[in-house]
Amino acid sequence: MPWVPRGLRDGKLTTGWPRRPDAYFDEFAAGVTVRHDAPPMSHAEADAAARVCPTGAIGHVDDDDGVRPTLDRGACILCGRCVAAFPQFFARESGAATAGIDRRALVVGGSSGTPEELAGLREALAAKVKHLGRSVHIRHVDAGSDGSDEWEVQALANPVYDLHRLGVFFTASPRHADILLVTGIGTAGMVEPLRRTREAMPDPVVVIATGTDAVSGGLIGRGGYTSGHGIGELLDVDVWVPGAPASPFTLMHAILLAIGRLPARVAAEPRGGDAA
Amino acid sequence: MNADAVHAAPVRIAEPASWRQEVADRVAAGERFAGLYGRAEIRDDIHGCAVTALLVCGSAVCALETWIAPDDAGELHYPSLTALVPAAFWYERAAHDLSGVIPDGHPRLDPLLLVVDEGAERPRPGHRDPTTSVSGATPPGSADVHGRGMFTIPLGPVRSGVFESVEFLIETRGEDIPHMNIRPHYKHRGIAKQFEGRTTDDGVLIAERVEGIASVAHALAYAHAVEAIAGVRVPSRARLIRVVHAELERIANHLDVAMRLADAAGLAVASSRFGWHKEATMRLVDALCGNRFGRGVIVPGGVAHGPLAHPATVASELRELHGRIRADLILAMKTPSFIDRLRTTGILTPERAVAWAALGPVGRGSGIADDCRWSRPTDGYADVTMPPSQPVRTAGDVMARANVRWDEIDQSAVLAVEALHALGAMQSPDLLTPVDVPTGDAFGLGWAEAPQGEVLYAVHLRDGRIERCLARSPSLHNLAIFHDVFAGDVFTDFAFIEASFGLGYAGAAM
Question: Can you list the positions of beta strands (E) in B250-316?
Fold first, then answer.
């Protein structure tokens, strides 16, 4: 078989992440953030910034400290318009770790849940995954994506990411699946197939909403006639993964976050917008 | 930019019957049928619908429009085009779903893109305040083949593997596939209405998401339509950047096909290698623009920003990457267990390809030598050294389509490297020409060659905002052909044939 030496020719291609850091994981700009050194914002600037955003991801809080912008990564499609128009407030942020278990925590600069609420979410998720062994199976369902999300999910099987080495596998049968990974805005046509897939899965099920489309409907799900404001209205989501689409490293981080297998080194890293 | 594309409005033929005859005559005379769409239009206070057919003739694309008035029952009838032009089959179903027009004499007017609730209005693209109610119920599939032992297997909408949702209703006796029906409506996202009311600058964000795996081509086709309306010329630097992204997108898509074909043949190492190359290609795109799909680069009038990495560095990386891709493709095409599965599988005969007006590698694998980059060049394709012709095969099988793609990877790599070198040497910093769209009504056509084939946009503006935008994806057009290529093929060929079409179902479901 000529393919055997071909497969050995280039040595090991697979990333060492999560055991070791990976430059692409750290450098990939998976999110937009509110700058820590942002100057004071006027009400006019806050309104202008909100108008720049095509998905309404930008808002502001107005309290004793003055006006500060907020940015909902769950709605952000990374078009970069806010960064171009208001570089003093917004910036692309490097690092693929953008997923979170609290939907509200995706809002950078916003108020996430109380520590007790967050601990509650974490415990509920931990209870779901505590009986999973070293082999976890994922069922993917496309609920109305633009097609790019599937490419990024498929990429997890390529030798660069090789999700299998972590004991995580994709399965065709929902009966064998522990995780339901959903992409897309949640179109009317996919509501019933999605519900039937969920029903065929044995409880407990961990649901991962993958990409901004699945988290909030993104750009296409806004005000459309096919419903589609994300899959949060259709399923109980455990892990929210922003990104348009979510990159393979972001997904890998999200899956390990879901099953509680992020090494302490990664879990301890400070992440903008994510308190999980 | 093409002067032929500048029209204030489509060519109008008042009488639907003469419009139908004119379209049929022009197709019979050798023009290629490229699409049909409805646009709600009020004339003299009557709520009618304009129906436009798109025809391609060599270097030009033209739009022929007629207007349909409601009859006494309030229904919009017109004589169906499908009997004379078979390629209109799915388009008339789509126009019925979205705009509510009824093509009389259509062979099968089942829902294609959208199932609405009983009595609900259609979305009617072009209508300002539509109301519609999409049904979540799935109508039973039709059974077209009758006989002893015939049954129907639904493949999808939830596929076995990480794929986009689409349903194939395969009618079979157990092994062969005499017939199938395709239902893409599950992931219909209402793209047409999402364009409406937006500014021309915002429209490109929607275009990038019509078919996410061909974001660059869709953004380009849209931008070309807007640029045709505004009559602007894109700066040379931007024209080259556009070429680089379009060609890298082509390489990534064709590698995806290579990966899926190798996977279907059980060649794990080959599949892994192609997956690795695809990842490397996407990282090059990311290095150039900060997005793995080339989004946020193309805007009407030019590009949003220059390359973030040094062009010469990217060029040398691409040349190395191309060397690895080439070596693996050559080995794959020498692997008997691989090519045995491709040869004579999923044949689209040249006659059927012409009848369906097949696009992209599907058409070029069946002898149709049409590629926008040669026939109707845009952007920097006029500034780089184009190979004398695009790759064409005539066998029409999976092998032919695969070989077309592998040749295109070679061409794309050479083109992108040349464009990158030219970019590095270029002095002019201009990236963007301001786009001024006229007030009042305006209409423009734009196209680009996606990895899947020709993307065609028809943009109607009113006072600078989008009134109706047709995003004609090659995936919709070619998916209609998919059920015509299974003569003598069996279940295990399905994965090969599907991969060889290389379609994005998001673009098909619209």
Answer: 298-299, 302-303
